[in-house]
Amino acid sequence: MTTANPFSSPPPTAPASALDRSDSDVVLIVDDVPDNLAVLHDALDESGYTVLVAMHGEAALQRAAQALPDIVLLDAMMPGMDGFEVARRLKASPATAHIPIIFMTGLTETEHLVAALEAGGVDYVTKPIKPREVMARMGVHLGAARKARQDARQAREARNALDAFGYASITVRAADGRIVWQTPLARELLQSYFGEVGPDGAPTPFGQWAPEPVQAWLRRHVLADNAAELLEASLAEPPRLAVEQGARRLTFRLHQQAGDSAGGGDWLIVMREVSDAKIIESMSLSFKLTAREAEVLYWVVKGKINRDIGDILGASPATVKKHLERVFAKLGVETRTAAAAMAMNRIRQLHPQFEG
User: Fold this and answer.
1) What is the pLDDT of residue 128?
2) Cα(59)–Cα(86) distance, integer angstroms
3) Is 240 exposed, middle or buried (0-12, 13-18, 19+ CB in 10 A)?
4) For 38-42, 93-97, 319-323, which range has the lowest pLDDT when averaged over its residues?
5) Helix or strand or coil: residue 82?
6) pTM here?
7) Which of 139, 284, 312, 338 has a CA that sits 20 to 30 A from residue 88's CA?
8) Domain ranges for the chain
């Protein structure tokens, strides 16, 4: 069990990853009075909590940032930086904003209690501190915090699983096109296809906005006057958006609404990249075709005639015809339709996301 001596200068705090949270919750106590620290420290330690302490505001911010405790017990009135300012700074930092804060105060006037809650506290206890009461209040908020962490972890795992299978995902606010979150693969794909863009199409260093084609597609299917009715009545999902870049194609699928529906709401969008080159290579290996024969067969699957295929490949229609005759022989078919059907079945087996 990890404990800290409240009467000594605290050693450098281990990073959050070094703290064992499997058997106990981590509590940071912030109070400038050693007696108060001692009473709470001993009671919490005996109850199985991992206890960290700080005796002034700066130390509290440092320890919270380093250790990311599960909950903070914060004295409201301290010399220098008081507890209200500590709470405001903790809530202003994305790394510590989620940590519940319970104020400890001897001030019971309404304005002080309101100030504690406005600063970001979820609860308060009055002095003199009663450890049993403190732990009862902690139990309520730690339960909620655990649930929030579990939900966030499951969401991250789900998004990472999508990335692992090549499906990237983003959540976009329909009203203004802001990206609420994105998986690492999603950010990489958006940068590759669009670069970093802002709401007006101008570059932005943070990638906070969905590209304009995605915003327009989202508005068309979510914000149009009859969008809600169409989405509700539709037995199939809305049409997908496809963006091509050479031999690569990135598709966007509107998956589901996330959160409040006000102003169009936030929408989870799943992206998938399909590379023509990968498909052509897989057809070559599957049917023992040369690279050029596989290219010809691919464009047959796409519905192109010999003249069009010749234009694409830089060859004459007669040359394309000769390649196609060899493809027919290797596949054991006699018509373009039969060859295209056989190739399509194989492509869908190897690339389920392919849209012919």
Assistant:
1) 86
2) 10
3) middle
4) 93-97
5) coil
6) 0.43
7) 139
8) 16-154, 165-275, 288-350
Q: What is the DSSP letter of 178?
A: B
Q: Distance (Å, rounded) from C-alpha 184 to C-alpha 163?
A: 8
Share of the chain above pLDDT 90, in %: 28
- Asked if residue 287 has pLDDT above 60, the reply is yes
The number of residues in the chain equals: 356
* Peptide bond between residue 11 and the one before it cis (omega within 30 degrees of 0): no
For 352, phi and psi rounded to 5 degrees? Answer: -55, -25
Tell me the CA distances in angstroms from 252 to 165, 175, 241, 249, 324, one per residue in order. 15, 18, 5, 10, 33
CATH architecture of 288-350: Orthogonal Bundle (1.10)
Give tens-digit pLDDT for 81-115. Answer: 999 999 999 998 888 888 999 998 877 667 777 88
The set of long-range contacts for 350-356, using a CB threshold of 8 Å and a minimum separation of 24, is: 350/279, 350/282, 350/286, 351/274, 351/278, 351/279, 351/282, 353/166, 353/251, 353/272, 353/274, 354/274, 354/279, 355/240, 355/242, 355/251, 355/274, 356/301, 356/302
Q: Are 268 and 256 in contact (CB under 8 A)?
A: yes
Query: Is it true that 16-154 and 288-350 share their CATH fold?
Result: no
Which CATH superfamily, name and number, covers 16-154?
Answer: Response regulator (3.40.50.2300)
Residue (of 316, 310, 307, 273) closest to 295 by Cα position: 310
Q: Which helix (H) or strand (E) holds 84?
A: helix 83-92
**Dist CA 167 CA 350 (whole Å):** 15
